Amino acid sequence: MASLRILVPVKRAIDYAVRPRVNKAQTAVEVAGVRHSMNPFDEISVEEAVRLREGTPAKTIEDIVAVSIGPAKATETLRTAMAIGCDRGLHVEVPEAAEMLEPLQVAKILKEVVDREKPDLIIMGKQSIDDDFSQTGQILAGLLGWGQAYGASEVKLEGDTVTVRREVDGGTDVVKGKLPLVITSDLRLNIPRFATLPNIMKAKKKKIEKMKLEDFQVRAENRLKTLKVTEPPVRQGGGTVENVDGLISRLKELGAL
Fold first, then answer.
1. Which is nearest to 186 in space by CA: 136, 126, 103, 139?
2. I need a labelling partner for 182 at 20 to 30 A (CA). Which of 50, 160, 210, 248 fits?
3. What's the pLDDT score for residue 223?
4. Is 158 left (phi over 0), alpha (psi -120 to 50) or beta?
């Protein structure tokens, strides 16, 4: 079997442990001075790419490249991906002040990256925790004409065949496809490893190629306009009732019955 190449898109997002705040203009979430890290679903994707290489015969997977589309600080995200095990990085730099790119724009950029890098497999998060669109993987697969498996909770690579287990409402769903393929990762796929200090130091020596948005045939014009962003309503405190009759009476008072 010929050596395989894996592409892993990663995104710099507000850290999952930070409580987002709406900015004063109510146009977006406040990002200035807020801690950022790799989108959790993307971190899982990086881990899975590395595990696939570790679980296959030597040199079966010859190259794992991480690609990030974002501001200059996205380089830190790529360094994290390389500390986990990616071989190199590709940074498509987007100005800090630019609007967040929409899934279609991101997918079109990634398609051009795929046309250039010629990967056999793309593993990416099923969604990012900042905009929660959950569309980029499916759009990318459509643009490429590749098969795709959404929300993977288990991935098995055997030759040029990939078996993906997915959790669905009724239990589990198993799909099988031939390479090339796009896989989007669910949270249950794995638990990412911590990047050790030696690997962090090694990652600083790995190559990150820089590109500009102007290098791609994509217009940075969003089709969606955010009218207003507001905080969710404060949740009301709960109460207790002594018995079922009391519960029914309370529900009637609230207009739920």
1. 126
2. 210
3. 85
4. beta
pLDDT tens, residue by residue, 13-32: 999 999 989 998 888 888 88
Provide the 3-class DSSP secondary structure of residue 123: strand
User: How far, in Å, CA of 135 to CA of 110, rounded?
Assistant: 13
Which residue ranges of the chain lie beneath pLDDT 70?
1-2, 97-98
- Distances from the Cα of 11 to the Cαs of 42, 106, 227, in angstroms? 7, 11, 24
Please give the pLDDT value at position 97.
65
Identify the pLDDT of residue 179.
Answer: 96
Whether residue 167 contacts residue 188, with contact meaning beta carbons closer than 8 Å, is answered with yes
**The 4-9 sheet, strands edge to edge:** 171-178, 161-168, 147-158, 181-185, 121-125, 4-9, 61-70, 88-93, 208-212
What is the Cα–Cα distance from 42 to 33, expressed in whole angstroms? 22
The tokens for 16 are 């999952």
Give the CATH architecture of domain 4-253: 3-Layer(aba) Sandwich (3.40)
User: pTM for the complete prediction?
Assistant: 0.88
Helix (H, G, I), strand (E, B) or coil at 67: strand
Domain boundaries, the chain: 4-253
Report residue 81 CA to chain centroid gap: 12
